Amino acid sequence: MATIPSTMQAITVVNPGKDSSLAFEQRPVPQPSAEQLLVKVAAAGVNRADLMQRRGLYPPPEGESDVLGLEVAGIVVATGPQHKSWLGKAVFGLVPGGGYAEYAVIQANHAMTVPVGYSMSEAAATAEVFLTAFQLLCSIGNVKAGHRVLIHAGASGVGTAAIQLATALGAHVAATASNDDKLVVCKALGAEVLINYKTTAFEQVLASKWANGLNIILDPVAGEYINREMPLLAMDGKIIIYAMMGGRELPALDLTPLFKRRGQLICSTLRNRSNRYKANLVQAFNHTFAQQLAQRTIQPVLQQDFNWQQVEQAHQLMTANATAGKLVLTF
């Protein structure tokens, strides 16, 4: 095993807020605790949460690294005493922060083995979006075969993962996206109803197509979408909000449509969940989907990888909403 240096380069945020910038900074290499693995990072996923953290809107959980990056793939180079069997293995998984660096620590029970044939970039594009989608659809949504599911931002990282998981579980999927090219991606992944939200009111299409209503709506927009979604629900349907791209404040909200349908309005995050929760989520995801992931019947949609020195270009591309699938930094 190669000697581990004492310091590493990491990407840090300067002046968090609307005028933030990124810097390359020397940091100490983190030391794994008894329950952690130290990974020599080969690739790190880029997520919209990283943009939010740059703006000062999504700080890391207390005690975690302030370095950006919520998922990595790489080689295990050091471990706690009970996890030596991981040494030298290629792994990927969630980290609560610190992914944009040459080394990162990951909880041993959050790590997953990189499937045979996957590149490190593909592996780094997998954990955040598939575990988020699995949590939303399965842990919270309790999706069943035959359910009708609306996935907003269908061509996003989480959207592309959610379409695949919902389809694999036998649900019927509607997806929204900002242009027809993105809808082509959604259709290829299994979406049946395709809605360009720039040109069409999604609620009109869905009220016509699925008169019996929607069982689950995955909403990263919030804002004025909530009022438009509530009348679309089937009885006992759920609107699950996992981001607030449309704003954190709602227009005047009439709850009557929600009561009529015994509907649920649920807000969900993943980053600030406990280590035990995340370990259980990883175990449940692997139990349900590891084989399909290995066989590529579900797989990450990787739009582009960037050398990590080009991180600003990756962030600008995501900010422009010009992505279909995932962006990844390679080290």
TrEMBL record:
Domain Enoyl reductase (ER): 17-329
PANTHER family for the chain: QUINONE OXIDOREDUCTASE PIG3, QUINONE OXIDOREDUCTASE PIG3-RELATED
Pfam families: ADH_N, ADH_zinc_N
NCBIfam families, sorted: quinone_pig3
Keywords (A to Z) from UniProt: NADP, Oxidoreductase
Lineage, highest ranks first: Bacteria, Pseudomonadati, Pseudomonadota, Gammaproteobacteria, Chromatiales
Coiled coil: none
Keyword Oxidoreductase: yes
Name under which the protein is recorded: NAD(P)H-quinone oxidoreductase
Keyword Oxidoreductase found: yes
Gene3D superfamilies assigned to the protein according to its UniProt record, in alphabetical order: Medium-chain alcohol dehydrogenases, catalytic domain (3.90.180.10), NAD(P)-binding Rossmann-like Domain (3.40.50.720)
Source organism (scientific name): Rheinheimera baltica
